[in-house]
Structures are given as structure tokens and as C-alpha cells.
Amino acid sequence: LAQLEESGGGSVQAGGSLRLSCAASGYTYTPYLMAWFRQTPGKEREGVAAISLDGATLYAESVKGRSTISQDNAKNTVYLQMNSLKPEDTAMYYCAISRYSGVWYTERTYRDWGQGTQVTVSS
User: Model confidence at 12, in pLDDT bands (50, 70, 90)?
Assistant: First the structure.
């Protein structure tokens, strides 16, 4: 069974850091895109960062300069290092995977999603 499993969320104070992990298992193809989205109650999911098969990285303006997405192909894992966290970063963070290229910040680009990991940043 193919699945994505996120971990690494938690509660931190503003200015702190977290590293989220997304482990992919059971997939029979090499994904073209893997991404992190986030969502707060009552709002749509927002694309945070993505990484392509060739290692290109893309970021939302809201996290650019504070976050780094990376991948370990040997472990089939994607990471999101978030630094200088702000209260507005508080959200449920989801990992997503796409076999094909697409608009990285659009939900419909991605076929599968993880269950999410909560990030809470207090002021």
C-alpha cells in the first residue's frame, strides 16, 4: 500500500525551528514532484514548498528565506526545515506526491497526500 507519512511537527515559540519529514513507501514509480502544503481551519491548503526530481526547489513567498526543502532519495524521504518560525506559520502541514510535472502550488497536481502533522508557533 502506497502511503506518505509525515512527522516532526510540534509546538515551538516564535523564532524557533522545526524539521518536518515525509517518508514515502510502497510507490512503484519515481515521483516528479513532492511538496509540502499547509492548512488552517476555514482556509484552503496553501503550497509551502516543492522539490522536483532533478532537485529544483520552489517556495511560497511567505516562507522563502526561512525554509528549506530537501530530499534523501535513498530513504524516499522529503524534509522541510523551517527556521525563524512565526505564529502565522501555525497550521497542519501535509506532504503530497505527484508522478508528473504540474503547477507545484496547486492541490490538483498531486495524487496522494499524507495525514498531516501539526505545527503550532506561539508568540
Answer: very high
